[in-house]
Structure formats: C-alpha cells, structure tokens
Amino acid sequence: MKEPDVSHGHAAFAIPSLDGIRAVSFLLVLLGHAGVPGIPGGFSVTVFFFLSGYLITTLLRQEMDKTGRVSFRLFYLRRALRIWPSFYLVLTLATTLTVIGFLSGRVGVADEVAQCLHYSNYWLIWHGADFIPHGTAVYWSLAVEEHFYLILPALYLVLRRLNLSGRQQATVFLTLCILTLAWRTVLVLHYHSVQERTYLGTDTRFDSMLFGCSLAVFNNPALDLPKRERPSILELSFLAGGVVLLLISFVIRDPAFRETLRYSIQGVGLFPIFITAIRFPRWGPYPLLQLRVVRYVGTISFTLYLVHHVVMGALDDHGVTSLSVRILATLVISLVLATASWFGIEKPCARLRRRFASVPAAAAGELPRRGSANLASVGPRSATD
User: Fold this and answer.
1) Taking the mean position of all CA atoms in its chain, how far away is CA 280?
2) Predicted local distance difference test score (pLDDT) of residue 358
3) Got the DSSP string for 205-259?
4) Closest Cα partner for 133 from 103, 162, 174, 178?
5) Would the pTM of this model clear 0.70, i.e. be above it?
6) Residue spans of alpha helices (H) in the chain
7) What is the 8-class DSSP label of residue 340?
8) pLDDT values of the chain reduced to their tens digit, one per residue, 385 residues
9) Closest by Cα among 306, 300, 310, 309 to 335
10) How far is the CA of 215 from the CAs of 38, 122, 273, 366, in angstroms?
11) Cα separation, 345 vs 88, whole angstroms
12) Are 218 and 170 in contact (CB under 8 A)?
C-alpha cells in the first residue's frame, strides 16, 4: 500500500528495517486477500498508515528545523510525483482490462471518477464496489492517505507556529486519536454503523496515521534517541507489551471491539515495534528485515499493493483456483510489474522529486541525532511515500 517514500525530495532517508516492515506488511496483505485463514491482512493497512504518519511528519519536522517553514507547494508536488504516475497507470490498466472483458465486472463512470479524485473510500461505503474496476477496491486506503496529506502540513505548521514542544505536539496528536476512537464508538454503538463505515472512512481511520505523527515529533527514534546494539530490560518489556496488545487485537473477534478499540490498540502496540526496529537494527529479528531481497520488496511495495489484487482477480477470472498457485503466481507477476514500474516510472520520478527538495541532502550514510539539521539516512517508505 502506498504509503511514503522517505525521500520525498528530501535527503533520501534510509531506515532499512522500515523497508523490511513494508515488505512483511505487503506479504500479509497478499495472503489475506488470497484467503489464507488466520492472516490479519487488514492489520497491514494499519501498519502502512502508521508508517505514513511517522515518515511524512519526520520530513516536515526536518524541513521546519532547517528552513523555518513548510513549503506547501513543494510538499504537494513531491506527493503527486510519488503517488500519481503509478496509481493512474495501474488504474487505467485495470479499467481497460475490465472494459474489454479480460477482467470480470463492469465499470461505472461515477465510480471511476471517485477513484480518480481519491474519494473512493466513501464511495465504497455509500455505493459498494459493483462498478469499480476489478481489483481496485483496495485503493480506498490510498484515498485515506490523500486526505491525510491535505490536512497534515497545515496542522503541523500551526503546532510549530504555536511554539509547542515536541511533547506538546505529541499530546495534540494523541488527543486527536482519542477523539477518533470516541467517534468510532459513537458510530458503532449508537448509530449501529456497518463495518465498512468505520473500516473505510477517513474520519474513522485517521488515528492510525496520527499515532505515527506523535512518534515523529517526540522521542523520534531516528532523530532524538541514540542507536544502541541491544535494548534494555525496560525496552524489552515495552516491546513485549506492544506484541501482547497486537495479539489481543487479533484474537478478540467481537465486531464492536474490532471496529472501535482494535485500531487504537494496534496503534499503541506499534510504537515499541517501530522504535526498536529503528534503534536496534542489528538486534533480534531485525537483521532479517534488512536482507537485500526483503528491502527491495519493501522499496517497491507501493506498486505491489496497487497491482496485486488486479493480478489476483485476473487469475480468479481465468480459472486459477489452487490457493498455493494463486499466491505464487500473484507474487511473481506483481513483482515483475512492480519492478518495471520502479525502474521505468518511480525512479525517474524520484530523481525529479529530489530537484524539489526543501532540505539539502546530508553526507551519505549519516544519520543525524538530536539538534542536527538534516536526516540523511532514512530510506523510503520505500517507495510508498
């Protein structure tokens, strides 16, 4: 899923573990959409949202610290170059294949407009997915992120103009998370809203990104905390607590819980995982996330997310029913398509984005600590930013 490239025109940020997290998240999405029992595919979207909030806010913080301002023009230009070329190409391909009958289903003009203008999440809530190009209903999460990008730069600038400390900024973001939870609870318990309303709505899913924003502004593990070889006992306890929270969110199947507290619990549980992945990259399982092949999958994860469900739909339509074959074929075909997009579209656009950088690149490989003007090594949402 989309999500953010840390190099939005800024010094390319390379946090290898986060590329690995993207790769794992994409694989969970793939397995979940394939119908593998017990796979929390929807959780992967929450991870991508958290990652977007963290990376985009870190970049805004970096820009503000260096220049004293946030350039809205450059921000949105970089966002457009990151997201739109691949998105519109894949959407056009899926639409064409559906219209000519290679993919099943029908395409409605209004539905297509909803996709193109990034309000497909609410369109799905109101009208369903009957006339959306086959395999593109998953783009609802991209719509949520686009709405987030419309609001975050202005919100962050206001917080900085008010001279709020990092702790105070985090408090604002976490307060908004609590308000989002309260709103979901009202929708579910009072208005008895259907699951799609809370799962797909921007107003009910913003908190997954806001949790990431709060980590970016206070005790940011890439900017404020020193790297170490291994976590302390207290930090290990914190990590264990986060894992337990995530397991609780997977195990409890009550519908009301799943559409209210689940997203909040997952957001809190992701804090220690992201912190340890960034601060202790050589410890525990994190070196696995930095294997070259894993990082590459994370790097192209945005386009993988865009194409995988279209590919899976085509396999379904043409009689590929074996679960293992569908998964393997979807993965291989998606990797080929995403690789072509990466080298043919995304890398050229990345070079263009760097021309619109607001913060000059720091020395290669350097990851500044607190007080440093630049953040030189925190790799892309790997391509999803």
Assistant:
1) 22
2) 56
3) HHHHHHHHHHHHHSS-TTTTS---SS--HHHHHHHHHHHHHHHHHHH---HHHHT
4) 103
5) yes
6) 16-34, 41-67, 72-99, 109-116, 120-127, 140-161, 166-185, 195-200, 202-217, 233-251, 255-258, 261-279, 286-289, 292-299, 301-317, 323-341, 347-355
7) H
8) 444 344 333 444 567 888 999 999 999 999 999 999 999 989 999 999 999 999 999 999 999 999 999 999 999 999 999 999 999 999 999 999 999 999 999 999 999 999 999 999 999 999 999 999 989 999 999 999 999 999 999 999 999 999 999 999 999 999 999 999 999 999 999 999 999 999 999 999 999 999 999 999 999 999 998 888 899 999 999 999 999 999 999 999 999 999 999 999 999 999 999 999 999 998 999 999 999 999 999 999 999 999 999 999 999 999 998 999 999 999 999 999 999 999 999 999 988 887 776 554 433 233 333 333 223 222 223 333 3
9) 300
10) 29, 28, 12, 21
11) 12
12) yes
CA 298 to chain centre: 11
Burial of 30 (0-12, 13-18, 19+ CB in 10 A): buried
**What is the radius of gyration, based on Cα positions, of the chain?**
20
Query: How many residues would you count in the chain?
Result: 385
Return the structure tokens found at 380: 């892309």
Residue 138 per-residue DSSP state:
G
pLDDT at site 86: 96
Rounded to an integer, what distance in angstroms lies between the CA atom of residue 97 and that of residue 134?
9
Contact criterion met (CB below 8 Å) for 324 and 36? no
- CA atoms in the 13 A half-sphere facing the CB of 383: 30
Q: What angle do CA 306, 308, 311 make, to 5 degrees?
A: 120
Whose structure tokens read 């017990």?
38
Cα separation, 17 vs 352, whole angstroms: 26
Q: How many Å apart are CA 253 and CA 332, to the nearest integer?
A: 33
**Contact indicator for 317, 275 with CB cutoff of 8 Å:** no
3-state secondary structure (DSSP) of residue 129: coil
